[in-house]
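Thread: "does anyone have the structure for this chain?"

Original post by V.I.:
We have the sequence but no experimental structure in hand. Need at least a predicted one for the grant figures.
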Amino acid sequence: MTPPVAGSSAPLIVADVGGTYARLAWANDDGTAPHIDGFRRYQCAHYPSLAAILSEFAGSAPPAGLRAVVAIAGLLQGDTLVNANLPWPVAREATRRDAGLHHLQLINDFEAVALAIPHVHADALVPLHDGDGAASAWPALVLGPGTGLGAALRFADGERPVLASEVGHSALAAGTPLELDVLRLLLQRWPHVDNERVLSGTGMINLYECLCVLRTVSPRWRDTASLLAAAKAGDDPLASETVQVFCGWLGSFVGDLAIAFGARSVYLAGGVSAHIAPFIADSPFVARFLNKGVLGSVLQQVPVWRVEHGELGVLGAAAWKGDTM
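Reply from O.Q.:
Generated one for you, tokens below.
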């Protein structure tokens, strides 16, 4: 990545780009907290490139010295972004040039979400597990399923307050006989079954299709929105079972990461997290989060919140600018 431009007063675009939507805004900094204005959302598949989205947002006469900080799903290797969920390839320098930017910074999308956490108001936090009730306990695990599955660790302070990860691409672990059966079916389709194959929006459909095979039922739903709508209506037992299994499996995954990272608090974000909100309380999510043997008593003290904030990634990109540029 190109080093940040220090001390610049040039206009700054901040963006959060995932596999489905790109969210953009202008960033303002009053010296105490990041602020965003002019928020807009774009459907990625409707544009030929990231540069096209940035150009449209900037307008036909972009200001001189225009800069952008883009939180984006994936891992930057040299100039190229490695990602399985975006509709187009991304190269940093080509995107900067084609969008007419003076400077472009790419950061991991969940790095941005983690940077935003200290700026989230308490009324945007929905408790899933009370733990010891402590707010802002560090390190904080920040994760969530969307088009993919992202996670990062937020520390209290330091030169690098966030540890980004690509744990969504690590191997999926089964914790029940049913999950083992699902995993066996998925291994027939892919030689490496990562967490995203189940714990994401598209992964939920993979899970549903496997349950259809195991229950010898023909699939009725082909997309996540229809599946969730059927589960909410309560008239499709298999749709309801899919969401219950998904929530339980997600809870187990969250518990594993909390142990691995030594997290003192957990924040669940991501678009799918909002869609499964009506189901989490009556699901095995918390029980599976705590079902970690001798370390279950440790996790009893770790609070888990769901974050109700649709602009976290954009806010985090603005916070990155405030901390670093």
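V.I.: this helps a lot. The first helix runs from residue 50 to 58.
O.Q.: and Residues 12-116+312-324 form a domain with the Nucleotidyltransferase; domain 5 fold (CATH 3.30.420.40).
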